[in-house]
Amino acid sequence: MLSHFRHKDIDLQSLCPIRVGDGTRTSFWHDVWWDDMPLSASFPRTYVLDLHKHVSVKYRLSMGLGVHTLRRGSRGGVEQEQWNKFIGLLQDFHLRPVPDRLGWVNDVSDTFSISSARKLLDGITLSNGGISTHWNNWVLIKINVLIWRIRLSSIPTRERLSYRGVMVDSILCHVCSSTVETVEYIFANCSELISL
Predict the structure, then answer these.
(1) How far apart are CA 18 and CA 58, in angstroms?
(2) Which of 67, 97, 112, 123 ranks highest by number of CB atoms within 10 Å?
(3) Per-domain residue ranges for the chain?
């Protein structure tokens, strides 16, 4: 199911960021919980030096921020620069007494709902055709549907069938055989059909 969305360039994971509470269920280095990428990608040199690569946020923070958590101390340059940024970032971070959870950026309450997900996916995947649909209750439903399909140009005319690879004898109007059979031509311009 998720691969279907990835093929349509819909990244559901970015819409559900991790909200760290007590830090027990979030991977310190590999989950995206700070900024927009894992800490292993933000601080690659510090990650390589760290002795504890597969631990939770809670466990890593409980160890403290000293160099004793590294294979060796930094050797200056980029390593030292990343280490200083890393320490600065974590000194201001505090765990809270609530469980870790996923957020939902598509709703102001930050809580996932089927309704908000459906609205998001419909907005991305469904084409509205640029026009709103107004149903007339005094007309039969099949007439409403026909008018709706005409407005969206989704009637299977000979031109559309040929474009989709269906073998047709000719793409000319089957009534008058003078012009290409399009939705507009059938319902507005074909002199033979207008006279009916």
Answers:
(1) 14
(2) 112
(3) 2-13+103-125, 17-91, 141-194
Q: What is the token pair recorded at 187?
A: 């319902």
With b for 16 or more beta-carbon neighbours within 10 A and e for fewer, the 33-50 pattern comes to: bbeeebbbebbebbbebb
Helix, strand, or coil (residue 193)? helix
Contact 177, 170 (CB under 8 A): yes
Q: In whole angstroms, what separates CA 148 from the centre of its chain? A: 28
Pairing mode of beta strands 101-102, 18-19? antiparallel
Chain segment 41-71, per-residue pLDDT in tens: 888 888 888 888 888 888 888 887 776 777 6
Q: CB of 23 within 8 A of CB of 57? A: yes
| pLDDT per position as a tens digit, 99-126 | 888 888 777 777 777 788 778 777 776 6
Secondary structure of 58-80 in HEC code, one letter for each residue: HHHHHCCCCHHHECCCCCCHHHH
Please list the alpha-helical segments (H only) found in the chain.
Answer: 2-7, 12-15, 39-42, 44-49, 57-62, 77-91, 114-125, 141-151, 158-163, 183-184, 191-194
Angular region, 23: left φ>0, alpha ψ -120 to 50, beta rest: left
Contact call for residues 95 and 58 (beta carbons, < 8 A): yes
